Amino acid sequence: MELTFISWLVFLFTPSHALAHASDRGYVLLLPTGYYLFGGAVAVAASFLALFFVPQNASERLAAWRLPLFSVPEALRFWTSLASFLLLGALVAAGIFGSRDPLSNPLPLTVWTLLWIGLTIVQGLLGNLWRWLDPWYAPVELARAIMPNYRRRALPQWFGYWPAVLLFAAFAWFELIDAAPDDPYRLAFAVGGYWLLTFAVMLTVGHEQWAARGEFLSVFFRMISRFGVLDAASDDDRWRISLCLPGAKLWREQPLPLSGTLFLLLALASVSFDGFSKTFMWLGANGINPLEFPGRSAMQGINATGLALMFLALAAVFLICVFIGERLAGEGSARRAAGLLVWSIVPIALAYHFSHYLTAFLVNAQYAAVSLSDPFGLGWNLFGTAYMPVSAGIVMGSEQAFLIWNAQAFAIIGGHVLAVLVAHGLAGRLHAGSSRASLSQLPLTLLMIGYTVFGLWLLSTPTAG
Questions:
Q1: How many whole angstroms separate alpha carbon 288 and alpha carbon 241?
Q2: For residues 328 and 439, what is the distance between their CA atoms, to the nearest angstrom?
Q3: Domain positions in the chain
């Protein structure tokens, strides 16, 4: 395992040619940009003002509503995890032995399009499907059966979510800063090395412990899934699934430690910087002509600094807003408030994820369907999609631009409005009385208004790279 991990590190940091990493582009709007920015800011502000007239118990009743749907046996988890593990192994093999073209090889298309974009959105809209797709659960269970007397160590409480924060930071660097994150060969060693490293840690401390606080994908997907409309409750050896309102599960979350708070803020900052790093403003500020983009390799140092600054700025502003809000309310702990109110970031993070990656997903998901039918480039047609024509025109033209931009804008504005509602509900657990809870949310609402304007500006400004 040590040799594999060392090989992974060598290939990960070996210079290679840069490959395109798809993202959205700014649109020329039908009205002046300021109209859209003003409208979005007004919508978020109006939702905050409306909360003064909504009784707290009415919101709590809506959040507690559930409609039972069906149940799923817990035993199914082993088989779905095993299938996920086998699929991952096949994808890594395809990355090593298949085409080096990132639009023909299924590994980068599955990792960056189907997993990072598609599954995140599905998790956010529905619920925690990752729990059933986790590629470590079944192998760890098999290892436990082989070594029943193997003693596992407990993670110290002070670990918090810090391992997940560090691993997500490394993931964000690889996705946004590395010269060629789409190169199938290098990505195969990165994915395979990370799986082996995680498997070794899970054998040491246990699957559930590390998935809950250390493995960054499990932590991220679980947090994002708290917005989904499917709620799962354990009942002996079955999981009972119920329907709930979007964001309702966030109302009963417990405060996160500082490490958990920073994890969610880092997730939002990484997607925001991915969009901002391609704007003419960012490139011009760093002395780069946007029409002569030098490539990702030349931008590594600049973008690494920018990503760190974006995260530090967002974290600082969020914590300051929470602190000021608690002082306005005249009571409460700012640390506890930050750990609880950061759950209101989940709708915003999900909205940004959808908006930023929408155009890339619409095109690259078609390439994924083609490549999965012929993963090794041998002329196979496993799913009947190997010769499916890929249409990039799905994101081109005035009608498509109108639909896509409005979907993106609606997601960003809607995400911030829902964040205000969730934050108000969580604030009601911190402060007695609706008026005091609303007062504590004033600085955070101003931050959300500002971030709405920033997100809409990102959608409409020209980009390069």
A1: 52
A2: 7
A3: 2-460
